[in-house]
Amino acid sequence: MPRWIEPVTLQGEHVVLEPLTLEHAPALAQAAADGELWKLWFTSVPAPGNEREYVETALDLAERGSATPFAVREARTSEVVGTTRLLNVEATHRRLEIGATWYAKRCQRSPLNTEAKYLLLRHSFDVLRAIAVEFRTHVMNHRSRAAIARLGAKQDGILRNHQIGRDGIYRDTVVFSIIESEWPAVRQNLLFKLGR
Questions:
Q1: At what angle do helices 142-151 and 111-122 cross, to 10 degrees?
Q2: How far apart are CA 20 and CA 7, in angstroms?
Q3: Could you tell me the CA-to-CA distances from 91 to 3, 10, 42, 133, 169 in Å, in that order?
Q4: CB distance 72 to 83 below 8 Å
Q5: Tens of pLDDT along 8-58?
Q6: Residue 4: which residues within 8 A CB-CB, separation 6 or more?
Q7: Residue ranges of domains in the chain, CATH in brackets
Q8: Torsion sign over Cα 13, 14, 20, 24
Q9: How would you classify residue 193: left for phi > 0, otherwise alpha for psi between -120 and 50, otherwise beta?
Q10: What is the distance of C-alpha 37 from the center of its chain?
């Protein structure tokens, strides 16, 4: 029986999402260096020298069928500028999460991010026929929370003491979602944003 999610390339005008491989590790190191993203204590960006392990972990989750990791490539320059995933896949319930997303600082709050989310949501709802797509972020990551809300996702709640961070500090996780019936309006809104 085929798995619900499989590696796929998603392409738009601003961004190309391609299946993550070990060959992307050096480019991810360069992307993370733009803004020294590993210093953000509330995110999971690989520190210098840990990129290969980061990619190997993502590929292990893909092998087990619980994630599809992507390298995020800027379409104009073909430069790898970050990564994202479909993860926490529940095929039986047709639910998944878009997350583990980070971009070089110069690409944050750009059409690249909006289009990447649009492509992932379109694939999730229109191809995979998902009934719900979640987004999760650290309660202290206010920029991420605002960006998720701008997509049209609704906040479902906060999972308190949800995870133990790499520094040993407990993480409260804010959960957002877009459900199947909301997708047409969210799609229209994202296409409007991209058209501006």
A1: 60
A2: 9
A3: 8, 20, 29, 12, 31
A4: yes
A5: 999 999 999 999 999 999 999 999 887 676 766 566 778 888 899 999 999
A6: 65, 89, 91, 94, 128
A7: 10-190 (3.40.630.30)
A8: positive
A9: alpha
A10: 15
